[in-house]
Each structure stands twice: as C-alpha cells, then as structure tokens.
Specification:
Layout lengths: L4 E3 L6 E3 L13 H26 L3 H5 L5 H32 L1
Antiparallel strand pairs: 1-2
Amino acid sequence: MNIRNIKCPSCGIYNVNSDYCSKCHTVLSYKKRREIEYENEQKARLERISIEKTNNPSFFEKYEDHRFLLVRIFVKLLKSIWVVVMAIGMFIAWLITTIAA
C-alpha cells in the first residue's frame, strides 16, 4: 500500500492519502483537479453552445413558428424535401459501399 503525504498549498497542513485538505478542504489531488477543471470546461462549452443557438437559430428554427400560415407551410414543405433528399443521398452512399465491398 502506497502512503502519500501531501502538503496543502493553502494552509500548509500535511494530509495522508486524501484528495481534499482536512482543514481547509482545498483539492490536493492532481487527478481530482483535472476532473473538476474538465467538468467546468464542459459546462462552459455547453453554455456557449446554447447561447450561440439562441442568438443564431437555423432557418427552420427561425421560421417554424412564424405568424403567417403560408410561411410555416413553406418551411415545413422545404424541411420535408430536405429530409427526403438526405434519405436518398444516404441510400446511394449505402448502395455504393455495399457494391464496392
């Protein structure tokens, strides 16, 4: 068993085999610090993405709830055509890969 004596950078107390200081609860483990930093970066990234999405919506999101019925119908029709074109493209890609294999 490996015993680790870690000195707390904040208060200077030595701690044995712990990730947090027993006195001031400062994070001592580098692994724990990296995990916490990674989680904070993930939260910040998701927050940036959500802000970007609300500030810059796509064409379909922007006009899907338009006040004019004609615009909503046109957007739904355009979206349906786009889905069909993508489905045909995926089928052609699948067909080419199965023939090539």
